[in-house]
Amino acid sequence: xxxxxxxxxxxxxxxxxxxxxxxxxxxxxxxxxxxxxxxxxxxxxxxxxxxxxxxxxxxxxxxxxxxxxxxxxxxxxxxxxxxxxxxxxxxxxxxxxxxxxxxxxxxxxxxxxxxxxxxxxxxxxxxxxxxxxxxxxxxxxxxxxxxxxxxxxxxxxxxxxxxxxxxxxxxxxxxxxxxxxxxxxxxxxxxxxxxxxxxxxxxxxxxxxxxxxxxxxxxxxxxxxxxxxxxxxxxxxxxxxx
Length: 242
Known about the structure:
By secondary structure, this protein is α+β, with helices and mostly antiparallel strands. The protein has a single domain, classed as L-fuculose-1-phosphate Aldolase, CATH 3.40.225. It contains 8 helices and 7 strands. A 7-stranded mixed beta sheet has the order 3-2-1-4-7-6-5, sandwiched between helices. A hairpin with a 6-residue loop joins strand 1 (34-38) and strand 2 (45-49). Helix 1 (10-25) packs parallel to helix 6 (182-205) and helix 1 (10-25) packs across helix 8 (227-239). It is globular, with a radius of gyration of 17 Å. The relative contact order is 0.16. The mean pLDDT is 97.
């Protein structure tokens, strides 16, 4: 494990490993995607895996990174190209404690069809609020980028698109969700994908009756108080426990 993580609570390290495995198990990430947590001992750093498939992450694969994307340790392993997503969101949003970036398939249509906005269709996805904003990378990188958020400039542009929301879609790419703790961020990434599936199905039948803003806010509050219920189940599943 990165020496810079020596003073981190072992429970957080354990949760970081479980988070990676849960996101893969539930189909939010595959060989790509990543999850991070702000360093509770130093808010100018965050914890994330080295560049690898989330399902394969172990405690020894975790590393510490400054908000500007520089690994803390001199001998750090290769970091994710898009670590700037995390660093710039943490920089722009001091309230954010965890970030999940994924390419979950059901969400993609809502970031490429301009007339389709991802909105909460049921109480489990109230955190989406009035609708997810969409980050247009062309506005910053031009029309010939590789679509990856591989610099502080692009990360900062993404953070501006996120604004005060809990989720931002990324045109032709995927989505990023934030949490005020790690388990909440994982929950939101999972239910953003499930909401997208339900919303797409509902749109085939007609015009969905979306949650009002008030319903979304109150539903999100209720679910935040129950997040460990899902987490403990998912953790058992990925650990093969009964």
